[in-house]
Design goal:
By secondary structure, this protein is an alpha+beta fold. The chain folds into five domains: about 170 residues, Beta-Lactamase; about 130 residues, GAF domain (Beta-Lactamase), CATH 3.30.450; about 120 residues, Beta-Lactamase (2-Layer Sandwich); about 160 residues, Alpha-Beta Plaits (2-Layer Sandwich); about 100 residues, Arc Repressor Mutant, subunit A, CATH 1.10.10. The chain contains 22 helices and 21 strands. A six-stranded antiparallel β-sheet has the order 3-2-1-6-5-4, sandwiched between helices. A five-stranded antiparallel β-sheet has the order 9-8-7-11-10. Helix 1 runs antiparallel to helix 2 and helix 7 packs antiparallel against helix 8. The longest helix has about 50 residues. The radius of gyration is 51 Å and the shape is elongated. The N and C termini lie far apart (about 150 Å).
Length: about 750
């Protein structure tokens, strides 16, 4: 009975002592203070040899603090939890009586190794969270009060609560210190470099890391770029290109995951990742949950500061760029007013856009180019792309066309619009991702400048051409009213109109264009004429170029007889090669008139060149050139025939054939002409027409029926040949002859 009373008193004493300890534990602000008081209270009250606190970290037991002499528990009690009893962290154990048969426990072996005769443990648990255990040991055997087990288990819960509370207080203190650090080191208007310097320093020192750095996300290039300065030693410092469809942990290790020697914290603003904070430790050290929480707290505040600094820099850069744009704008206005050429304007616009550019006219003829020093090799590549996609480019009306934007040399074509017309095209060498709102505003201004320059140059050229055509119309009139005025104008363009000259008329027949769209057709012919003038000016700088109605006219100084044919052949070949280079299917008909002796001769020489051109267009289907003086009987017909009489003559002899050929699929008009040109030889004529001889005979029978003639009559053949010559000479409209 006395033993029971003593045990009850001992239990009461233990309970009272533990309650006092519990009340004191909640007063401490740090985990270290809490554990130290716990050890001191046990050590003094129970006069034990060893008191230690073993904490659970991941899957290990780590001795945190202890009191006792000649103990090595920092080594013996550093154990894997799997090697210990399953109830070690749940129940209060004691030894040496508490032994499970056949169960090996590393913790109990460690107690034996430390030569403790008696020991017991207090599990530190709270809300299903296991913090570890407290162990009390004696060198000598001490009888334990088994009934006090429940008291120690409850005490363990209270200690766990106190530890949890102490940890929370430590976190709050760290946050307060973090806020104070932010207030002392981060200021409004700080640069990104200053912010990053402070955050990596704080992250490195606050987690005892060997190095820390910040990667900022570049949306334009879709990559994470390391931004200096760094703290300590960093092994990862390369640019990281990313696929925005993949999560961030594909590119950085341990994203918000402790228990590793590397740790990555995303910097997030408004649900958008603007970068990451990367920290690392030595290989044998790891980051804890507290480190993660600390870094997340610091990053959450600094992320907004970095984003604000970045936006401020962007705004500042936009302002500077706007100022540069206004300077370029003034420079462009000045150059436009002063009449600078397109090359100077292109150079300025290239500087505005910070890109290489190519300028084309409406028919994709290069006008001006300006390439940056490191991109000059791209010019032939870009020109090839434009030609390959010529059809798509010429259909542009408003938006741009990107040429192979995914390749290493991306570029885009913008149409230059004046009113409702496309005046040309501007090719800019840059990636699509760089085309932001500011660049589009700059580009719109550049396109407007080009449009104004195109319109201005067109007005000047049109005015010059109108004056020249007015002058030519007077010079090529049958009756000249004011010769002095013509001589005066010719003197202004350094042309001595009183000297002998020779006149040629050129006609272009396009058969790869839509003939129903006359405006586009004539515009393209005018453009080809401009190219011809440019090329022939290199061949003969003295040539006078002009137009009359739909004909293009050359006025040249006559050469001697030996050079005469070679000169015109060379001129014709240059025109042909130019049109082949432009990849256009065009027939060229060139008629060359006689030589002028006085002003009054210009009209007759012009008429002769037109007649020669008409004859060439009928005699040479694929094009060619001819001199009026070489036309033989055509010259007699031209000088002796009346136009109305010639029309009636042709209508009588050939009108029925023209009408029949228009209403049927058989061209009897050509059939008869080929038959006559081959002197009535049926075999040669059928071979030329690619038809059988019997088919030719049938067609000729049809001709004799329509014209009511005898083709074997030599006189009739002569009249028919003369009708064909008059038809080609005067170029009658088929509707006139039906």
């Amino acid at each position: 009975m006395d033993l029971n009373v003593k045990q009850e008193k001992l239990k009461q004493k233990i309970n009272t002592h533990l309650r006092n300890i519990t009340r004191q534990l909640i007063k401490f602000d740090t985990l270290q203070e809490t554990l130290n008081y716990l050890l001191e209270s046990f050590y003094k009250e129970f006069t034990c040899d060893l008191v230690g606190v073993i904490l659970k970290e991941d899957n290990q037991l780590i001795p945190k603090v202890w009191i006792g002499d000649e103990f090595t528990i920092e080594e013996t009690l550093k154990l894997k939890i799997d090697d210990c009893s399953s109830n070690l962290l749940q129940d209060a154990l004691w030894g040496p009586d508490d032994q499970e048969e056949g169960v090996a426990c590393s913790f109990k072996k460690a107690m034996e190794k430390e030569q403790l005769s008696t020991w017991f443990t207090v599990p530190l648990n709270h809300n299903n969270k296991q913090f570890g255990l407290c162990v009390i040991g004696f060198r000598d055997f001490i009888p334990l009060v088994i009934e006090a087990e429940k008291i120690f288990v409850e005490f363990g819960h209270d200690v766990a609560v106190a530890m949890d509370l102490a940890k929370e207080k430590e976190k709050q203190k760290r946050k307060i210190k973090g806020v104070e650090w932010i207030r002392e080191n981060i200021f409004p208007g700080s640069t990104i470099e200053h912010l990053i310097e402070k955050i990596v320093e704080r992250a490195g020192k606050g987690t005892q890391a060997k190095g820390a750095c910040v990667y900022l996300f570049d949306e334009t290039n879709s990559c994470f770029t390391p931004h200096p300065p760094n703290y300590g030693t960093i092994t990862r410092s390369e640019l990281i290109t990313v696929d925005t469809n993949l999560p961030i942990d594909n590119y950085f290790p341990s994203v918000e995951l402790p228990s590793s020697n590397e740790l990555t914290i995303p910097l997030i603003v408004n649900l958008k990742t603007i970068g990451v904070l990367y920290v690392c430790k030595e290989d044998n050290h790891v980051f804890s949950d507290d480190d993660l929480e600390f870094l997340e707290f610091v990053s959450a505040f600094v992320s907004m500061q970095i984003e604000n600094a970045r936006l401020y820099e962007l705004e500042s850069e936009s302002k500077k760029r706007m100022e540069r744009l206004m300077e370029h704008h003034q420079e462009l206005v000045k150059k436009t007013v002063q009449g600078q050429d397109l090359n100077d304007i292109s150079k300025t616009i290239s500087s505005m856009l910070e890109s290489s550019i190519l300028l084309y006219d409406r028919f994709l003829k290069p006008i001006s180019t300006y390439f940056k020093d490191k991109e000059t090799h791209l010019q032939p590549i870009i020109e090839k792309k434009v030609i390959e996609q010529k059809q798509e480019v010429t259909q542009l009306k408003s938006r741009e066309l990107w040429l192979d934007e995914c390749e290493e040399e991306p570029c885009a074509v913008w149409p230059i619009i004046g009113g409702r017309d496309v005046l040309g095209y501007l090719v800019i060498c840059l990636p699509k991702r760089k085309v932001n709102r500011m660049l589009r505003l700059t580009l719109d201004h550049a396109l407007n400048v080009y449009a104004i320059e195109f319109i201005k140059q067109k007005l000047v050229l049109d005015a010059k051409e109108q004056v020249k055509e007015s002058f030519v119309n007077q010079l090529f009139s049958e009756k000249i009213d004011d010769q002095d005025k013509i001589i005066q104008y010719a003197t202004l363009i350094n042309w001595n109109v009183l000297e002998p000259h020779q006149i040629a008329t050129l006609s272009l027949e396009l058969y790869d264009h839509d003939e129903t769209n006359l405006v586009v057709l004539e515009s393209y012919k005018s453009w080809l004429w401009d190219q011809i003038k440019t090329k022939l000016a290199l061949y003969d700088a003295s040539i006078i170029f002009t137009r009359k109605d739909k004909d293009f006219i050359f006025i040249v100084q006559p050469l001697n007889i030996k050079q005469h044919t070679d000169y015109w052949n060379g001129l014709y070949q240059r025109i042909t090669s130019l049109l082949k280079k432009e990849r256009t299917k065009t027939k060229i008909f060139l008629g060359i008139g006689g030589k002028t002796e006085k002003i009054g001769d210009y009209y007759y020489c012009y008429v002769q060149s037109v007649k020669a051109k008409n004859v060439v267009s009928y005699r040479y289907v694929q094009g060619g050139f001819s001199f009026y003086d070489d036309l033989g009987s055509y010259t007699i017909l031209n000088n002796t025939s009346d136009s109305l009489a010639s029309e009636l003559f042709v209508k009588k002899h050939l009108g029925p054939l023209i009408k029949y050929s228009q209403n049927n699929h058989v061209d009897l008009f050509e059939t008869l002409q080929v038959f006559l040109n081959h002197n009535g030889n049926l075999r040669d004529a059928s071979k030329h027409l690619f038809i059988h001889r019997s088919t030719l005979e049938y067609r000729l029978e049809r001709v004799t029926d329509l014209l009511q003639i005898d083709l074997n009559d030599a006189e009739m053949r002569f009249e028919l040949m003369m009708a064909y010559k008059l038809h080609s000479l005067f170029n009658f409209n088929p509707e006139q002859l039906i």
